[in-house]
Amino acid sequence: MQHAWTTIVLGGVLLPVGCYAGLEGRANDEAAEQGSDGTEGGESGEGGEEGGVDADYDPAPVRLRLLLARQYTQSIRDLLGDDSAAVVTPPSDVAINGFDAVGASQLSLTDAKVDAFESSGRAAAAVADPTKLAVHHTCTPTGADDEACLREFVTNFGRLAFRRTLIAAEIDNYTAIGLDAATDLEDFGLGMRTVVAGMLQSPNFLYQVEVGEPGAIEGHRRLTGVEMATRLSFFLRDSTPDAALLDLADAGALDDAEGVREAAWLLVDSPDARIALADFTGELMRVRELATVPKSTTTFPTFNPALAQAMSGETRALVSHLAFDSDGDFREIFDAPYTFVDAQLAAHYALPNPDQYGATFTQVELPADQERAGIFGHAGLMSVLAHVSSTSPTYRGKFIRTQVLCEDIPAPPVGADTTLPPAEEHATMRERLEAHVADPSCAGCHKLMDPLGLGLENYDAIGTFRLLENGTTIDASADVDGVPFAGARELGAIIKDDPRAAACLVRNIFRHATGHIELPSEMVEIDGLVATFADGDFRMRAFLVELVASPAFRVVGEPE
Amino acid sequence: MLIKTTHSRFILGRRTMLRGMIGGASVALALPVLEAMLDEHGQAYAGGSALGRRMITWFWGNGVALNDPNNGSSGLRWTPPDQGPGYTLTPQLQSLENVRDQVSVLSGFRVGAASPGRRGHHDGCVMFAGHPFIELPPNGANYASKFGGPTIDQVAAAAVGSQTFLPSVQLAVSKRIIGSEGPTLQFLSHEGPDQPLSQIFDPREAWNRLFGSFTVPDDPTKPHRIASLDAVEEDVLRLKMRVGAADRIRLDAHLASVEQIRTQIDAVAPLCEIPPMVDQNNDDLEGQEQLEAVNRAMSDLLVMAFTCDVTRIASVQFTGSVGYTVFNTVGATSGHHDLTHDGGMNDMVDNATVFTIAQLAYLLEALKATPDGAGTLLDNTVLLASSDASSGLTHSTDDMPILVCGGGGGTLTHPGIHYRSPSNENTSDILLAILESVVPEATEVGSGNGYSNTPLAALLA
């Protein structure tokens, strides 16, 4: 299979000149490389202080990373309780290169965002669960002005909020503002809440601060124990580390790969890990956009917000199942012959007796006649990758090229005629696109994208299976770089076995985990992780554990 | 007891009047400008300081149908056939009838900062800054770009924003915005490459930001909020010493925003009657956006914010770049961006442009109906309306559809004209001309091919 793929991938390099010239080249070289040596065993994750870091590994400069909105809210939940989490309104994430985490590492705060953090911090503090505050002091306050007791609270709560032990000046500052408020408002509790509101606005809470300490190789910095605890917890469960994890870190337990693995297994087994992976899947596979995607109500009267939410639930359920329940080959997201439906989605898929499924998601075998399997047959992905009232083979193909195979698609040439020929002259989308692609300036790139999407034309713009378009039988025959297929089931099988797909998944998870698009100088470790993924039979939980134990996660570059 | 001024739709409370007379001109937030407070010409405060001038940038995505759908070579659907004052309103501009004297149509301009053209839509968006965009190499991820420098509204806000409660406000109407290609397409206002400014989509949230967050002077929590900010600032400064240069710049921005929030907490509430909370939301109804209702609510709030002098700088993203707004009220059933690439749908693109300009006209008429000094808010405002391409079909940034509206406090030519550039002038010349109306000392805008130090003379009074 490997050899077969090498050939096919190399075949894919024979791109039309116009498009090839626009590619950066590297992506293709890499794809070819991974095809030929992707099976080499990884040597990362073993050995000494830095986990056997490759001498050629040159990690990207580390940046402050703002907590994502979901990480902010879930941290508030863990620190202060559900009531507090319900009242915060953190600013929306801004994605760069398609990743929230990349935006969080590059962009600066603005007035409106600092304003939102100020009001959210106060609101969260005001309704914080009193028992969540009380655990941070053993003393009984002797009055509103009990400074020693407040100092104990500041020290203990501060360690959780800042995810490290506070320095004396910080303890002094926050004790002072808390004491002022407690005295002025004649309430020790309001003093604690003032401290909480302040700390939640501190950069020490709002950013993942990763300064590290000098590593074994010049220019490398190894994350400290509490920095690792923080990175682990936010990556694996989208929330702040708890006291037990910080204790482990302070005891040095996260200083070697084995200790990190041990801690990581506990985290990936937490219920939050499921939600974290599902949320990232929603980001990467774009099904979170279902919450806002518009569809023509005349063309698609059955489409509504509840159905859209069910579609998103299906994809999240499959990911959770593969990573956490079946613990199987995660690449089954591309070809699973089963899925998860509630009553609404069962009706949408025309399954018999849809009402038997109710409101919770149930695993069902997919009927073979709709040729569905994996996410390419999910109504959610098919809806997001479509227009308001029609499909878009180009969007679908572009998504597979970029998000699934990590290939670059150049922009349309400036001045290109981007007109699609009128619908009335062509019954099917295939005919319209083929007429469009007759223009040689467009053909090069469209030939990379369109065929992949044309093979999915049996799923309309809300993912309903159809055989006809405007009364004409749909021809869903297509190919992936020369390998023929028709429909989601065949496409999924091809993509699942394409080494580019597993390698791309690893790259995408690395981007999310570290908040940057990988540099060429980081590929040596990433290639090692790709091999680790394969060696572990593509099981996701074990892979996440190996990822966080590897130098790719634990070693960062000197800041710029 | 409330009194209503005879020519204003804005209601001033009695307490407002009293405080205004007691407080005089020394208050942090200015009064709605009453005639009694002005000099005898109504052109300046009695004390001699100039009336506040306002700036709005107003954006719609995907350009316009430049041509008559039935006559591809006519070019008359958007661009007037004649030049100078009293120009003929084309079908797409017809709704500007009541404000035509305060609208200048500028045609034949190219986006200098787009040269050499690199990426459709991204190239057009940068017109609002005059700085070429910064490409963020995708390396097998999504293509993305960010602005190369501040947009013109933020250049103005940096100069005059400290005079008001909010330096600026960012509003939006359609939610069908592209978020997958980076800040350039997603946001209209940018303080700089790493500070895109999030827009407010929900009028209730806009009300809250403009009118709902004033601190009452005797609020017992106020000193403690300020004290928290002190502690936060110390934390930021301490953190700055531990990070690299790139992060230090980000932390400086963080610090500046903390300072701004401190100013806002400290500010005196505006000395005008706070308008009642709006109940207009921006939820879809039966899968459709409430474009007209949201536009009205946002426009009304903006007019009241200007009247109260809560801010003087605003941006309104009516629809997004590459946006997929469905103009269902004019018969569209597909997203706007798709429409513009559908050869058979030029009539519908035309309908969408007509609809869009009618929404702009609502705001212009509301500004015109609101007294400000001896004139109207429109007299003291400059509004730049444009898009991210001349035509969505070609992504061309030549012959951009551009309107400059308002009197700019007397700095802009009146009555409005149609001026067709004889030489494909740089759109940054327009930016500099409008910037000078708010920031008279400005001498240049933009960078690279977008740089200009030559304000468009035809636009100046």
- The proportion of residues forming helix of chain A, as a percent range, comes to 40-55%
Instruction: State the helix count of chain A.
Output: 27
Mean pLDDT of chain B: 88
Radius of gyration from the alpha-carbon trace of chain B, in angstroms: 22 Å
Describe the structure.
The complex is a heterodimer of chains A (560) and B (461). In chain A, a hairpin with a 2-residue loop joins strand 7 (468-469) and strand 8 (472-473). Chain A is 53% helix and 6% strand. Chain A has 27 helices and eleven strands. Chain A has helices spanning 2-12, 17-22, 26-37, 69-80, 82-87, 100-106, 111-126, 130-134, 147-162, 168-185, 188-199, 203-206, 225-237, 243-250, 257-268, 271-284, 305-325, 343-348, 379-384, 393-404, 429-437, 440-454, 487-497, 499-514, 523-535, 540-549, 551-554, and strands at 65-66, 207-208, 213-214, 220-222, 338-341, 362-365, 468-469, 472-473, 477-480, 483-486, 555-557. The longest helix of chain A has 21 residues, at 305-325. By secondary structure, chain A is mainly alpha-helical. In chain A, the strands form five sheets. Chain A has a three-stranded antiparallel β-sheet with strand order 3-4-11. In chain A, strands 1-2 form a two-stranded antiparallel sheet. By secondary structure, chain B is of the alpha/beta class. In chain B, 29% of the residues lie in helices and 12% in strands. Chain B has eleven helices and 16 strands. Chain B has helices at residues 14-23, 122-125, 152-160, 183-186, 203-211, 222-240, 245-266, 291-307, 336-340, 346-368, 427-438, and strands at 2-4, 11-13, 54-59, 84-85, 103-107, 134-136, 144-146, 169-172, 189-190, 196-197, 313-317, 371-372, 375-376, 381-386, 402-405, 417-420. An eight-stranded mixed β-sheet of chain B has the order 4-16-5-15-14-3-11-8, with helices on both faces. Chain B is globular. Chains A and B meet through helix 3, helix 7, helix 10, helix 11 and helix 24 of A and strand 10, helix 6 and helix 7 of B.
